[in-house]
Amino acid sequence: LMWVNKVLRTLKAKSINTCSAAKSINTCSSAGSTGPSCRLVGTVVLVGCGIGYMSYKREKRAVDKALNDLTNEVAQLKETARSGNLVSSKKVTQAAQESKLPTERAQVTQKSQDTPENHLAACCDVELQKFMDTNGVPGMVVVVMKDGKIVWREAAGKSDIENNVPMTVDHVFRIASISKLLTATALCKLVEKGVLDWDQPARHYFPEYPEKEKGNPTVYQLAVHTSGLRHYLNNREKKIHEHYDTVAKGVEKFSHEELVHEPGSAYLYSSQGYALLSAVLESATNIKFDKLMIQEVCSSIFHV
Length: 304
Description:
Mean pLDDT: 74
Order of helices and strands: HHHHHHEEEHHHHHHH
Shape: globular
Distance between the termini: 69 Å
Strand order of the largest sheet: 1-2-3
Largest sheet: 3 strands, antiparallel
Structural class: mainly alpha
Low-confidence stretches: 14-47, 84-113
Number of helices: 13
Radius of gyration: 31 Å
Strand content: 5-15%
């Protein structure tokens, strides 16, 4: 406010003709160069600018403090592990109990000599539990890989809450939309091999998909979510548990629908688009989609 008052005093002292510089404003032109309406507009604008500037500075200070605290915490953890000034086994056990952790990790730390590796692992266990508590996650597995090798992995929580089954590092999870990345990888490899042309309409390889009034999406447009096919309508449709014997059977559920927009004219994330893309890959190669994924993607990643 002191800054605003200073500017107002400067304007008044120099007798700046605000209205003559903005003749399109009716209130100013009608009130004259020094009319009260003009002065009121100028005051409101300046006060608004001052308040906005102060809010920006306050939020920036809060963000800077949070980032600084996080940086210091990481630095302290690294220094602790490097110097060997480890937390005692008793404190690790206490931290695990306070975080509702299974005591297996704490017991292992008690039985073995304190090392930087054990200390970091115990700290990671605590952080995993904090993450689960904050986000309502019943159980999870974390794996860290470096240079193609697993350097750390840990399971936390439960895989079955009702039956009190603990999570293990070998638990199998559904990968949900990560499958889109694997599907796109298979598409790129097939394009490189000349098996299909992604600039062709999807109907070229999968004629069961009918023509659309707004245009026929290409294989590439399916892959980059510009095909015009819709996404899930609601959570009930998203969580459907109906099994389809073939990819084509799944595509039948929405193939009769018109596109949301002309292909290539806009971006719209679409799981339906990737279902159709899966059918295209299957039809172009004459290989079942699951076997195609093993052949083109999983064999090189997981050496299966």
